[in-house]
Amino acid sequence: MRTQENNKNPPHVAAALEKTLTALGISNLAQLAVILRVSTQAVHTWALEQNVPPKRALQIEVITGGAVSWEELMPNFREEIVKDAAILNISENQKIYH
Questions:
Q1: DSSP string for residues in 67-93
Q2: Stretch 11-27: mean pLDDT, rounded?
Q3: Helix axes 29-36, 11-24, angle to 10 degrees
Q4: Exposed site from 16, 45, 57, 80, fewest CB < 10 Å?
Q5: What pLDDT sits at residue 95?
Q6: CB hemisphere CA count around 19 (13 angstroms)
Q7: Domains in the chain, please, with CATH?
């Protein structure tokens, strides 16, 4: 595998990053960083911390033509939103108006 192995890195995020490299025809995360115009350190941090920022996850979905979805890069996103809603005591039936 071309991404750095780490016990904290769940298979689904690692697989999504690997799938990104394959879809783009590149061989490592440093090349992905160049394409995304971010530092190599940033991309390696995403891999290690299993956390691709939303903007970058969407960008990857676009540049891969949908071969890699943002959901694959952010598998815990829905759980985080549900947790935040629970903390704020927001039920599914409540409507929030600003």
A1: SS-HHHH-TTHHHHHHHHHHHTT--TT
A2: 92
A3: 70
A4: 80
A5: 60
A6: 18
A7: 11-87 (1.10.260.40)
> Which one-letter DSSP state was computed for residue 5?
P
Using CA atoms, how far apart are residues 70 and 79, in angstroms rounded to an integer? 15
Cβ atoms 24, 67 nearer than 8 A: no
Give all strands (DSSP E) within the chain, no chain letters: none
Give the residue-averaged pLDDT of 18-24. 97
Question: What are 51's two structure tokens?
Answer: 């956390």
Between 20 and 94, the higher pLDDT residue: 20
Q: Residue 58: which of 9, 3, 4, 20 has the closest Cα?
A: 20
Under the phi-then-psi rule, with left for phi > 0, alpha for psi from -120 to 50, and beta for the rest, what region is 94? beta
